[in-house]
Amino acid sequence: PFNEDVVPQAAEDPLFGLMAAYKADSFDRKVDLGIGAYRDNNAKPWVLPVVKKADNILRDDPDLNHEYLPIAGLPEFTKASQKLILGADSPAIAENRVISLQTISGTGAVHLGGLFLSKFYSKTNPNATIYFSNPTWANHNQIFTNVHLPIDTYPYFDAKTRGLNFDGMISALEGAPEKSIVLLHACAHNPTGVDPTQDQWKKIAEVMRKKSQFPFFDCAYQGFASGDLNKDAWAVRYFVEQGFELLIAQSYAKNFGLYGERAGCFHYVGPARNGSETAKRVASQLAILQRSEISNPPAYGARIASLCLNDVSLFAEWEANLRTMSGRIIDMRKALRGKLEELKTPGTWNHITEQIGMFSFTGLSEAQVAKLRSDAHIYMTKNGRVSMAGLNTNNVNYVAEAINKVVK
Ligand code: PLP
Q1: Chain mean pLDDT for the chain
Q2: How sure is the predictor about 208, in pLDDT bands with cuts at 50, 70 and 90?
Q3: How far, in Å, is the centroid of ligand 1 from the Cα of 107?
Q4: Which residue's alpha carbon is nearest to atom 12 within ligand 1?
Q5: How far is the CA of 220 from the centre of ligand 1 (A)?
Q6: What global pTM score does this model have?
Q7: Where are the transmembrane segments (predicted)?
Q8: By alpha-carbon position, which residue is closest to atom 15 of ligand 1?
């Protein structure tokens, strides 16, 4: 039944393909600016010291076992996750309007949200389309397509200014049908590194309120954008404050460096009126979806995150670790821009320091990206996105000089 017409050969995932090509390259000065994972100044994966500490506490716990977690995951983890994204004093939490399920990291949370919307939102809003930014994290496209939600995009990146195309975004939302679903990156937009300002978020909320549109926040980088967990949650909290009913996908891959442990959380925030009653019903259906998809989530990463989130001193240490990561990335932005300007590389490079989070959308063309790879063994996605975490004091000048060569 699986002949070529039925199951054609699919293209390799571009990001994981890039990773494999980098690994296979034997050049000693090769540079990996592809994958969105933090690296230390020696280009090595970094286990956060606070994670190591939590790991040791767990390993020493004689009562630790490998039993199943509940369907919705580790309760102390999901509770703490609500507080982290919504704020400990969030009225939505106090009013029991928030329900949360532990998921297979951020991807699992986006998927669970997509599945829920496809099954229930579509009932009263048939053909409701989910709009995401152009460009967005490549997986959004396939996750929502797989659950049969119609997809469309709103303009986001302005290639000329290398900043936000705010007018384009607003007029697309104004032009989108009422009750459309709008996917928003909570902070540190992937792949562009460009976020709306607080005033721009207010305007986005105003338009979405007018059009009764439904927000779905994807939050994969809390603490990575500014180094401040509260600041990075501002947009989500503002929408909740404005009374929106909404969904949140939360990942701990980047901010805890727990990539492979798949620790994440999905939240539904009910409306200000009758919110707790709605949340209870929503929770019951989400439990069924979760049970049929993964039965129950993996325990270890959530236990580590939970220890850090629920202990005052570990939490403070985590915040310091986050500042180490975001601070090093900011330093690399400054260094790359500085060197490109010093070399008088044609074009403007202020966007490198103006963009935030893990990524920078450099504006390099596909041909330039290919040349960087063949001539200098520097790997990045073909859209010119650079993972800033791949830069360090040993390679930033080498990278700047190589960019300078391909641009000139
Ligand atoms: N959403 C965005 C925008 C991302 O960039 C990522 C990871 O790169 C994710 C979600 C999900 O990541 P994970 O499943 O590793 O938590």
Answers
A1: 96
A2: very high
A3: 6
A4: 106
A5: 5
A6: 0.97
A7: none
A8: 253
Q: Answer for the pair 169, 155: CB distance below 8 angstroms, yes or no.
A: yes
* Listed residue (267, 280, 272) closest to 240, CA to CA: 272
Backbone φ and ψ of 157, nearest 5°? -100, 130
Neighbours of 11 (CB within 10 A): 6
pLDDT at 13: 85
> What is the Cα–Cα distance from 72 to 148, expressed in whole angstroms?
24
Catalytic residues: 137, 218, 254
User: What's the pLDDT band for 36 if we cut at 50, 70, 90?
Assistant: confident
Percentage of the chain surpassing pLDDT 70? 100
Ligand 1 center to 259 CA (angstroms): 9
401: number of CA atoms within 13 Å, CB side? Answer: 9
Ligand 1 atom showing the smallest separation from residue 137 Cα: 3
**How many other β-carbons are positioned within 10 Å of the β-carbon of residue 114?**
24
Residue range 174-190, pLDDT digits in tens: 999 999 999 999 999 99
Give 264 Cα–ligand 1 centroid separation in angstroms: 10
Position 15 pLDDT exceeds 90: no
CA distance 45 to 51: 13
What is the CB < 6 Å shell around ligand 1?
A: 36, 105-107, 110, 137, 185, 190, 218, 220, 251, 253, 259, 264
Closest ligand 1 atom, CA of 219? Answer: 1
Nearest residue by C-alpha to atom 16 in ligand 1:
106
Beta carbons of 211 and 174 less than 8 angstroms apart: yes
Ligand 1 atom with the smallest distance to the CA of 264 is 16
- Asked whether the beta carbons of 343 and 400 are under 8 A apart, the reply is yes
Measured in angstroms, how far is the CA atom of residue 299 from the centroid of ligand 1?
A: 19
Report pLDDT digits (tens) over 116-157.
Answer: 999 999 999 998 999 999 999 999 999 999 999 999 999 999
Identity of residue 53: K
Mean pLDDT of 185-211: 97
Cα 271 from Cα 245, distance rounded (Å):
5
Calculated CA dihedral for residues 25, 27, 28, 32, nearest 10 degrees = -50
Q: 276, 252, 280, 278: which is closest to 77 by C-alpha?
A: 252
Please, what's the b/e burial string for 185-207 (b: 16 or more CB within 10 A of its CB; e: otherwise)?
bbbbbbbbbbbbeeeebeebbeb
Give the model's pLDDT for residue 12. Answer: 86
